[in-house]
Amino acid sequence: MRLTVVAIALGLVALASGAYYPASQPVTGVKYADKDFLFKQKFFFEVLRNIHLPLQFEEYFPYTKSYITDESKYVNFQEVVEFFNYYKAGFLGKGELFSIYNQEYMKQTYLLFTFFYNSVDFDTFYKNVVWARENVNEGMFVHAITMAVFHHPQLKGFVLPAVYEIYPYYFFNTDLIHSVTFRKLYDQKFGFVSNGKYNVVYSNYTALYPVEYYGEDKLSYFTEDIGLNAYYYYFMMDYPYFVGTDKFNLYKDRRGELYMYMYQQLIARYYLERQVNFMGPIEEFDYDFPIKTGYWSKLSYYNGIPFFVRNDYYSVSKDFYYQVNLLKDYEMRIRQVIDKGYYYAQDGSKIDLRQPESVEYVGNMIFANPDSVDKDYFGFLEVVARNVYSGGAKFAKFFPSALMHFETSMRDPFFYQLYNRFLTFYYQFKSYLKPYTYEELYFKGVEIKSVVFDKLLTYFEYYDSDVSNVIPLKASGEKFFDFSVFARQKRINHKPFSYTMDVYSEFAGKGVVRVYMGPKFYDFKQLQYLKKYFVEVDQYLYDFVTGKNTIVRNSRDFYYSVRDRTTYTELYKKIMTAYNGGEKFVLDNSEAHCGFPDRLLLPKGLPSGYEMTFYFIVTPYYAPKVQQFSTYDYTYSCGVGSGSKYIDDLPFGYPFDRDIDFSYFYTKNMYFKDVLIFHSDEFKANLSY
């Protein structure tokens, strides 16, 4: 049984508005999953059910005791032998607390991932995954199997349940977890379909507790949003900081630049949410002084141990001052190299850091991934920092903080302060690049005449997430698609909107439209500072005709955004129905894991309106080095490592990524539009029944 995947014709239904690239090609036709595809898809859903309990499906029992040792069953047996040796020496045990920012656990995760990745066929992969499910640490297993599905070229297109439904403990407060388990104890009908609307437990944000975090609690609806935290988790699964080199080809996606831009955009989006809540700039900090902002996540691990709590005015223990000194050394080395403008790699080659494309080196240097030029010299800056501000090694290992997990990092206000500091290296590098010239900004013969928006309206709604994995199955024969428990939580959303843009063109041909959203400014020169807080919300290729071009674009089509995921039990029910010969499984159920939540495109407005600025620019089409979609099937893949994800070859964030020369910056192919964002206090329901 080869590791093949049925081509998915309508996978772009969820991907259409994008991942980290704009998708501009329509998809037509319908295809259905065959028996082989459904068997594999069913397998992924079943091994991820009740991850902390033994497998409940008898068909897997024969493979739980041993893994495959036959050399012919692996592509690279040397890597597999390394896993065997490490495992025999001792892996993190089942039930122990796992953190991906613990260097030892990270190494073990990578070896488990390569163990899966090197399977020569699906039969080998299947049996090894079943063995690992029963014999390795649960958190490590979830990371490794997720990475295998995302990165193995022959597993593209399979859907995993949403991470917040696989592991609700990292996304919902302890009171919710307790309420679900206690409810099941005294109500045996709880969770079954026949019980209907009563299978719901309400979930609170941290802000509803008497802990203020110096005003940061106002943003809990944003920082604790399960979609936002899942977005970050999936990005880090697509581009893990410990995976790289030619084997995985992540460098082909301009990995270093992408990393920096992703964090810049997250910080910008967070900044906009702060502004509408009248919270001022992001707090700065110094390694030598206490951290003002504490954080109590209200999360607990599966075994009941709470996440590490960082108190207000947190000071690093004297036992870990040496790590603070490491951070200072790493930062000094990075700043010195950027200021110097060049660096000699280990092979003696000179890297010119005054070239725009060298942002790739700077990004890899800061985040110390395997594609970095010299990670031993520049150090593991973010890994050390996360450990230091999680109580040091003794706390980070035995009860890790929110900073020690991809899934929970963005809940902590200090995450934004930390990465806002790291971004100063990015801005420092960009400051040495010359401003774009008039010729690089102007698109001759193209003029944006007007832009008109619909009314922009945000609101809170209730949303149900499937947290059935909190409650264990009773027996192997139980049909868990007939059992579902929902966590109902208030979340921010916006009414879908459109804009109409009139463009006059003196030529017929392709151009690229970029749209940014940022803070309102009252003096044009304020843009020099505020440009780093503009969020790119849309980008697309357009065929212009001579004369007037009227472009109508709906927010549902914005290239970064994806919509809500189908719930775990609902999708599994569809899979099983088709597998048992019932209604066919349409392959448009494949849903993008690699996009920003559509709900969070706009920051929360005000009843009277909050003014924001949208910026539009039309540029000539600069063809990328590798034609978009030419090296992967965009109908079912996010294109990670393909090198052909992007529409054009312009830098990320263009033209806001460099200093502005205001004597010629504002050209006819640009347009600034001030727009009011309103907010309605009326609740809207988005429920599962």
From TrEMBL:
Keyword Ribosomal protein: no
Domain Hemocyanin C-terminal: 435-679
GO biological process: energy homeostasis
Domain Hemocyanin N-terminal: 37-156
GO terms under cellular component: extracellular space
Name under which the protein is recorded: Hexamerin A
Domain Hemocyanin middle, first and last residues per copy: 162-426
